[in-house]
Amino acid sequence: MRNLDELLAEGVSGRRVLVRADLNVPFVKDSPGTIADDGRIRAVLPTITALRDAGASVIVMSHLGRPKGEPDPKYTLAPVATRFAELLGSPVAFAEDTVGPSAQAAVAALAPGGVVLLENLRFNAGETSKDEAARGAFADQLAAFADVYVDDAFGAVHRKHASVYDVPARLPHYAGGLVRREVEVLKRLTEDAATPYAVVLGGSKVSDKLAVIEALLGRADKLLIGGGMCFTFLKAQGHEVGASLLQEEMLDTCRDLLARAGDRIVLPVDVVVADKFAADAQTDTVAATAIPAGWLGLDIGPESVALFADALSGAKTVFWNGPMGVFELAPFANGTRGVAEAITKVDGFTVVGGGDSAAAVRALGIDEAAFGHISTGGGASLEYLEGKKLPGLEALEK
What we know:
Mean pLDDT: 95
EC number: 2.7.2.3
Number of helices: 15
Order of helices and strands: HEHEHEHEHEHEHEHEHHEEEEHEHEHEHH
Protein name: Phosphoglycerate kinase
Pfam family, one: PGK
Pathway: Carbohydrate degradation; glycolysis; pyruvate from D-glyceraldehyde 3-phosphate: step 2/5
Shape: elongated
Strand content: 5-15%
Strand order of the largest sheet: 3-4-2-1-5-6
Helix content: 25-40%
Keywords: ATP-binding, Cytoplasm, Glycolysis, Kinase, Nucleotide-binding, Transferase
């Protein structure tokens, strides 16, 4: 696929460039408009800056959340435009619609070196429609704004959406720097991973990670499993898990995985439990095989952190996706912090995959530069590792 460097070499001065970004940032709970983590905005800045400095008129588009195909104030990108301008160090015009009068006026007024952000793409039903004609009609309107298309939204390339799949069919198209780097990293993880290869998986549900576990089972030397998903594995081994998160329908699947993987799957040996899901809960650290009835497991314990750190110590490749516990609440952040710090000490190539893991790194004050790569695309990264074809990448390759 053609990339941003090639586009810049061709020249973009005076041209309008439509950039698909992933500005789907989290907001502080109970504080509308306050961005909790601006990592995704920062990630696209190099591409926007390079285009702007080269004299392009830059039109940025993104989704935010899951509105129902119509405007919803809860999901407006207006706060993102404000933060975007602060980080960019120059004004960012904000269009109050996607392809309507406000967007048309903002694009018409855009001078070389200027930047405009369109309102949430998912305010238009055509963005996510499964009907090709509806999606195509919306893509026609978006493509009419520009001369060139750049996709720098790796977090969305697994979606067959108008802005990701249909627009590049209508314009000369290029991969942005972020997408290019993500693909390089994932190819390394799937085609040329140095061994020993350790994978750390967290998050809440086994079902969300089942396909990637299956895909990596034949490649990884160790699969370290924490987060809410570990309790289904513990239950599959015959242990009681109290009131912890549990997917009963996945128990047989977990038994099968454990039987096939043997000692390559490593589970927690102790967990931090609580009497309720809250920062002020009563807590205790117990053996993973002795969770009290009625109590919730909300983090892996210190012995598990040490076990995981030991398994990681000799690795040459590490892929981490998903926190080890409810890191947003201080009593349950130590497992994620401990495993993250262990990964930073690995003498090899380390990749943090997924928005939650990346947010945890920043929230816990861990140096991002200590990792080989921090991915912006959780679902997209997992689907790539599973071997699936990603519509956004296929569109760029045509």
